[in-house]
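User: Hey, quick favor. My workstation is busy. Could you predict this chain's structure for me?
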Amino acid sequence: MGKATSRFKIWRGQFKSVKKGGVVLPFLLRISGILRYGRAMPVENHTISQAEDGMRLDKWFAAHYPDVPFSAVQRACRKGEVRVNSGRVKGRERLTFEDRVRVPPFKRNLPPKPEVSDKDKKFIRSLVIYEDEYFFVLNKPAGLATQGGTKTTDHIDKLLEGLPKIGEERPKLVHRLDKETSGVLLIARTKAAAGKLGKLFMSRNMQKVYLAITIGVPEPKEGSIKAALIKKRVGGQDRMVHDESEGQFALTDFRVTDYAHRSAAMVMLFPRTGRQHQLRAHLELIGTPIVGDERYAFDREFYQADMPNGMMLHAYGLVFNHPFMPKKQMVLSAPPAYHFAMAAKLLGLAVPVLDVSSFPQE
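Assistant: No problem, here it is.
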């Protein structure tokens, strides 16, 4: 009894001292952890990477803490235990590059970390098209998600355990591609490389080039699409739609490199901003959606005998100065996936050469 009274006095004294300093919340959260779990589990702090830019906070938790129930995350947000840049947040809010996320002491029952099989190691290593001591470049296949989620168990992020490590550092995603998009995916080998490459993606010093096969031919055949985008529920699914008053600024330069009468075209795309589904939404907005895009071309019929399944969007290349060797220009290109190459062949469309000198000026 005497020890309990003494401990209470100590806590009361600590509370008074932090109250005088105006920093009551961290102390109360620590006490909350003790009362809820019997001991103060460590608070974790995370910095949002470029690959996670734009993710909803609750989906970020699902990817990083799959064993923590959704309800627990929402409750912690309501109580102010989860914080982003020291401020209160709701689970539906979206994260941005370099945000700081405070993760409270959740009670966790972690399953054993799964080992990457020899088959998976061989597969992920077969995707590597370039590597140096700072990063890997993969040619991601269509149909494989970049990151996991509530219902996504197979993804690139999980397979990164199968790539060679530098010391104990696990390779890290630098950016994301949609599940159905194939092509160039950059993987940092160290935390320092991830930080520098992430900042490059946020700047104008990283040029991104995509190829798309469209239903119809864009007119004019070269130009820019400037249309703000916002996510809304349309036809029972989430879509990015044009909304200048509430949407985020989005800009895409494009050039038609080949076309088949008026039925289809090969289009080279240069996204100047990085909004979710930006290229898909912009091409749909000008009336020429991407062949095989079930989300944005669902109301457009397109028939070609023996046409392979899949969305005809390919991350063709990245051009930038190496962050650790600034005088070295990197021109990284991935050949189109089989289904994309076959579709182009069936339609009589040539795949253009990646020529940096012909890129449109920003």
